[in-house]
């Protein structure tokens, strides 16, 4: 699931056979978790008026296969003028200590900045972070919020490599790395909540009703398409027809119906039991009040 | 549990002191115009009616709850109250202190909290604590620690803090659940006096359902987040021709239909939990009954003594002698105090909560099973 504009470029990397997992390798893939992404957006919202872009640290874990997971992020105080750039290293250290106490496995992965321009300052900051993440290369994520004109919202990830005859900290080349958005199942339902239209969390039955409505509308669309093909209005696409047949043609003849019925009975019984337990608890608590001393 | 009260005390010590309203500079001050009166609410007069959670807080709480070992995830909520709505704009997790190393761990938690608040202030985040959040499984969140912390918060914070409870199991099933609670006044009264005996419960009309009152929760995503989420969910066409439906149009956040899965996951565990909670409740009730019997025994002995005394006095008066003084009975017979029923009330609350989540799971499961039955003619 690419973030932002998908490109047709293919990322090729030469991985030597039998390489040790502890050797620092360039990351092959950067996956971003929702928490990190939303923290960055929140920090961008809270920036002061004079700041054009904000930077912060990325935290996460590295896999053996060269994949880098960015799990969370925090903002770092920094100042940028035409002549100088200053990053508050104390603050960065302190926040990392605090963060480490709660999430023990996460290490410093790199840094982020909003705005997608990569200039000398980015190279300097990249150099600083490379020292922090040594021996692994530091990952830089440039997040474009899409607030300015002509810029699409998206996220791009880079690692740096030195360039030039004499490598200097201010010069480096940013090599793009594929970046993806990944989340766990539990976070999935949280994201559903955020993207849904309702303002407040719904009960189980209501979310079920929403999903069923969505499926029902999809079925209506498919039905409309099939009907129009049958009546000859639209030329049927054989590929689509085959996919539809695969999906809907599931045969329930061989299914074990007895097991299903038993399971249904069990669920009914458990439901009755739950109501019974609840009413018992209520009665018991009131009885405790009634006992006259 | 000695760890809980001392941690609560350390939290109380570390909470920021209430800032006094700034004194007016000019000798003649203007009253706040009526239109702004609701925004600038210095005396915390407008009661909090609803809670608004920011999208960032939602994801942070989910992430922390998922990663913490067992359901011990808890942390603080930061934000501001505005015209009757408590807006929570940020949150951070608190480190989990394992074991009861009383002093050291509670002090370090307090230090962590102070440092975190200071750091957040430097990046222009809100730094006023408005409550705390707690992860729970299967809806059972009645615990002594939670009530202690909430009582302290309600004392010290501006509007009385709220506690947001996040149910991990329900979120795993596909429906993120966030509920906000506050201790009721009746319960707070009883808690302050630390008297949970039967007569005091009757006075305050306390049952497990009146310990906490629920406050409606709203979820808000700011405009930037909204637009970003839109970008993530819009499907993009694949450039490859003849792509199968799975990859023809992809988006970073495709809609999920995990709520439609049929399966009795969690039902068995839930039943086990109900069993355990009921057993614990029965034990507790047994203890209470034992204590009650002791009290009754002592009382009956004291009563018998008084009756004997009265008889003796009556006979003595009849014989014309001076009556013996009626000694202070309470010094002779030490009647133990009424036992606290808080624990059993909490356990009942747990049982009820398990029952409620069980009912929720089964009703959704029934709907799905009947739908499957109807559509595939089983």
TrEMBL record, chain A:
Protein's organism: Neolentinus lepideus HHB14362 ss-1
GO cellular component: eukaryotic 43S preinitiation complex; eukaryotic 48S preinitiation complex; eukaryotic translation initiation factor 3 complex, eIF3m
Highest rank taxon of the organism: Eukaryota
Location(s) in or outside the cell: Cytoplasm
Example GO molecular function: translation initiation factor binding
Protein name per Swiss-Prot or TrEMBL: Eukaryotic translation initiation factor 3 subunit F
Record text on subunit structure and interactions: Component of the eukaryotic translation initiation factor 3 (eIF-3) complex.
Disordered: annotated segments: 1-26
PANTHER family: EUKARYOTIC TRANSLATION INITIATION FACTOR 3 SUBUNIT F (PTHR10540:SF6), EUKARYOTIC TRANSLATION INITIATION FACTOR 3 SUBUNIT F-RELATED (PTHR10540)
Key word Protein biosynthesis present: yes
Family the entry assigns: Belongs to the eIF-3 subunit F family.
Main location: cytoplasm
Coiled-coil annotated residue ranges, if any: none
SMART domains reported in the protein's UniProt record: JAB_MPN
Known function: Component of the eukaryotic translation initiation factor 3 (eIF-3) complex, which is involved in protein synthesis of a specialized repertoire of mRNAs and, together with other initiation factors, stimulates binding of mRNA and methionyl-tRNAi to the 40S ribosome. The eIF-3 complex specifically targets and initiates translation of a subset of mRNAs involved in cell proliferation.
Pfam family, one: MitMem_reg
Keyword set, alphabetical order: Cytoplasm, Initiation factor, Protein biosynthesis
Gene3D superfamilies associated with the record: Cytidine Deaminase, domain 2
GO biological process: formation of cytoplasmic translation initiation complex
MPN domain span: 30-164
Segments of skewed composition (Polar residues): 1-11
From TrEMBL, chain B:
CDD domains: MPN_eIF3h (cd08065)
Gene Ontology BP annotations: formation of cytoplasmic translation initiation complex
The keyword Cell inner membrane appears for this protein: no
Domain of life assignment: Eukaryota
Domain MPN: 51-187
Location, primary (coarse class): cytoplasm
Subcellular location: Cytoplasm
GO CC list: eukaryotic 43S preinitiation complex; eukaryotic 48S preinitiation complex; eukaryotic translation initiation factor 3 complex
Similarity comment text for this entry: Belongs to the eIF-3 subunit H family.
Protein name: Eukaryotic translation initiation factor 3 subunit H
Species whose genome carries this gene: Neolentinus lepideus HHB14362 ss-1
